[in-house]
Amino acid sequence: MNRAGSYRARKKHIKLLLTVIMSILAITMVIPFVWMVSASFKPDNEIFDFPIKWIPKTFTFENYVKVWASSVPFYLFFMNSVKVTVLSVLGEVCTSALAGYAFAKIKFKGRNLAFLLYISTLIFPAQMMLIPRFVMFSNMGLYNTHWALILPGMFTAFGTFMLKQFFETIPDELCESARIDGANHFITFSRIIVPLSTSAFAALIIFMFVSNWNQYEAALVYLRSKELATIPLGLSYFQEENSTSYGAIMAASVCSLIPIFAVFLAFQKQFVQGIVTTGLKE
Amino acid sequence: MITVRFWPLSLLGLYNPRKEVVIIFSSLVISKPTKRRRMSNMEFRENIAGWAFLSLNFIGYIMFKLFPIVIALILSFCDWNFISGWAGIKFVGLENYANLFKDEVFLVSMRNTIIYSIGTVPVAIFLSLVMGSILNKHVYYKNVLRLAYYLPNVSSMVAVSVVWMTLFLPSYGPINELLRSIGIANPPRWLHGSSTSLLTIMLLGIWQVLGYNIVIILAGLQGIPESLYESADIDGANVIQKFFKITIPSLSSTLFFLMVISFIRSFQVFTPVQIMTEGGPGYSSSVIVYYIYTTAFQYSNIGYASSMSWVLFFMVFIFTAARTMMNKSNKI
């Protein structure tokens, strides 16, 4: 009894110690962000003071004013990002849900061949698409428009797979009984499958939101006008133009990260679920 | 038996080749009609419905995925400067590919990409394995801590690169100030030194990917039955023994998956290089995707850049294939 008690007490101490160690590690993980926030409120001549003053001596909003009132104001980047992200994610969810349903629940001629085609192209890294799409978009007049970012984002095989896999877990009997009652595929899809899959949709939406929001390479390659830039591209422009005003650069970084942190904190559970279900499917 | 030839089609865990490919091929084989019969009305309607549901995604898929791949392949056999327009395109066969291996910058970029991958992937996996195991059972506030580890991963690479390059400024950046204050008179020049630029990018890579790895490892750890640890406790095993004898073997498929996907991603590293060093100083931090980018979009040498992107594909392909083979050998 006594031995068991001391064992438990020792275990508790170890747990406490490990919590402290892991917390210190966690703090070092987020320290660059803390430094960024702190620097964004400092005048330029105090940013590199050492030892670091985490709470600014002179507190200023000047950097943020600079970001929001620069030649191409930050809200424009923000609006561009919202537009591109919302349209891509919305399009992707719709087209993937329909295609996922076709693959999971309809037996039609050519299904296996189409599916095979989808699978085989998934092994091509995204960066391989940059050059041919650039050539395509230039010829189609889509270069330097938001459609160059939205359209490829709308038709990913990735969302189709994720939803197909989820739809397959919904028992066929459910769909079949609806079909016997006279429902066509579209009704089965919209009244039975979609309402039962809200968690999968939530995971896909959050996951795609984050990856589309942070999309940089495509924006860098397909967009030329500064007024069209999305947040990551806008931030890189801002950094190039103001390469020595570190306070303003940090303020711009803070502004670029706030929306994504907010979304992540609000939908953490769905996001983690999205990573796990998409990453680990064994 | 039917699956054997189709190992390249693994999907990085998005589907289970054991299941899907077997189903696909057995049905392709089995469904071959032995005698012709008329399609029933029902079957006909199912076909229409199936293609109708698929159509939207399928058209987009052909336009923006299949078609670009074909273009990329054709372009890789051509010498084409984008500025000269379609008139300037010239078929050169395998010349682009032959030139690659004489191109110093390409070879350096390849070498850097491989150093980056070998230097970041095992370190990040090992760290996240240790941290994940501790987080899983031995701490309070597990979810809060996991959140902190995950923040770098959800941040855009551009933003973290911008912050990183400021922190690592050689003359007055906080990192070097700190090093000087603890007595290192000549701290490294980080991104500005040709021997440390790649290393600094690798540090950023590890820091950024750690949270993702931890989430995956935590999910894998959930699958290990508690009874294994309990019986090891009874046998008097210590923490280290349990880690090496139970945790690692039980996680082998998760770790393998993580390794494959990490290598594939690290081959594609681009943003931090483009933002922080532009491949410099010299070509000391140039990586393959960055070289593709500059060749195609700064020098408009589209054909040559396309041939490089097929080398990238091949690197990715090896790991995808390895994963599928591994899946097969685990098959009971």
List the helices and strands and how they pair.
The complex is a heterodimer of chains A (282) and B (332).
Chain A: H1 2-40, H2 62-68, H3 74-105, H4 111-121, H5 130-140, H6 147-154, H7 157-168, H8 172-180, H9 185-196, H10 198-213, H11 217-222, H12 231-241, H13 246-266, H14 268-279
Helix pairs in contact in A: 1-13, 2-13, 3-6, 3-7, 3-10, 8-9, 10-14, 12-13
Chain B: H1 17-30, H2 41-76, E1 78-79, E2 90-91, H3 95-100, H4 104-137, H5 142-154, H6 157-167, H7 174-181, H8 197-222, H9 226-234, H10 239-250, H11 252-267, H12 271-277, H13 288-298, H14 302-329
Antiparallel strand pairs in B: 1-2
Summary of the model, kept short:
Chain A contains 14 helices and no strands. Chain A has helices at 2-40, 62-68, 74-105, 111-121, 130-140, 147-154, 157-168, 172-180, 185-196, 198-213, 217-222, 231-241, 246-266, 268-279.
Explain what this protein looks like in three dimensions.
The complex is a heterodimer of chains A (282) and B (332). Chain A has helices at 2-40, 62-68, 74-105, 111-121, 130-140, 147-154, 157-168, 172-180, 185-196, 198-213, 217-222, 231-241, 246-266, 268-279. Chain A has 282 residues and is mostly helical. Chain A has two domains: 2-60; 70-279, Orthogonal Bundle (MetI-like fold). In chain A, helix 2 packs across helix 13 and helix 12 (231-241) runs antiparallel to helix 13. The model of chain A has no long low-confidence stretch (mean pLDDT 85). By secondary structure, chain B is mainly alpha-helical. Chain B has two domains: 4-93, no CATH class; 98-329, MetI-like fold, CATH 1.10.3720.10. Chain B has helices spanning 17-30, 41-76, 95-100, 104-137, 142-154, 157-167, 174-181, 197-222, 226-234, 239-250, 252-267, 271-277, 288-298, 302-329; strands spanning 78-79, 90-91. A two-stranded antiparallel sheet of chain B has the order 1-2. The two termini of chain B are 13 Å apart. The relative contact order of chain B is 0.13.
